[in-house]
Amino acid sequence: MIKKQVRLTLLPRFQMVSLLKLATITEKGVEFLSPHDGTPMLLTPEHSMSLQNSIGSDIMMQLDDVLVTTSPDAARMREAMERSVRWLDRCIAAHKKPESQNLFCIIQGGLDLDMRRECCREMLARDTPGIAIGGLSGGEAKADYCRVVAACTEMLPDLKPRYVMGIGYPEDLVVSVALGADMFDCVWPTRTARFGNAVTKHGVLNIRNKKFATDFGPLEEDCGCMACKPTTEGGMGITRAFVHHNASKETVAAHLLTIHNVYYQLNLMRQIREAIIEDRFPAFVRQFFAWLYEEKKDYPEWAAGALKVVGIDLQSE
């Protein structure tokens, strides 16, 4: 079977978030000063759709008004939420290929659950093919994050994808799935690779640590990624010692760790799907945390609390 690679684009949302200090948000769109030469630029919902239509994205995101969840300005948060709804209408009107490209709305509202629910109602009325929960992973407490995700997913239809944006830590993925989310994106697996970190089921290993200088085992035992898989099985048979030796001087270390970390994330989600299909997801979650933490007393309170609400008790066997 040939598996189609799905293309998801956030254009030009990423630029809006990353260059926020250089931007002014108005009803027209996002006004930038180019970081290169200071030239004024205007990014509108219509331009966002045009770019993504041209790229041919399978999943394309609306342009939304993004505000960090930790902002104390409630009036500005409401403005951002309501503007995101209006901009979605403009995106829908400008979308040229709705039959082949799926436009996702983005729910905003900060940590205000009533505002999030209001935004959910407005976005659901537009009937987009999928729904994203945006504006999270911006410094809020994990317990607050869980409350927002739970409040939103409770209102969302079962047969449409639920996409939580900017989430990548393994425990966040597992808990978010338990709360009803389906899709995620994050730069963390690749970014942490550049700092010499390997993501494993037992936690993150900093391969730059001198204790790995003479460790000739794979990055993770029984890992099926091309970096870890032995040469006898068609892999590269890379050792921790090799990556350690190159981590401070050659980009090859970051490349190898990226291969491993991305595989880890994809495999984790694959295991989650299999556990759900086989009706053993609660047991999988308990095993996941048992691998990650040496003792149950070390389990993070936010995770244990959020999981207990949906009927998964980490303390049970």
Automatic annotation (TrEMBL):
The keyword Transport does not apply. GO terms for cellular component: cytosol. Transmembrane segments: none annotated. Keywords: Transferase, Zinc. Residues 7-290 form the tRNA-guanine(15) transglycosylase-like domain. It comes from the Eukaryota. GO terms for molecular function: tRNA-guanosine(34) queuine transglycosylase activity. This is Queuine trna-ribosyltransferase. It comes from Fusarium heterosporum.
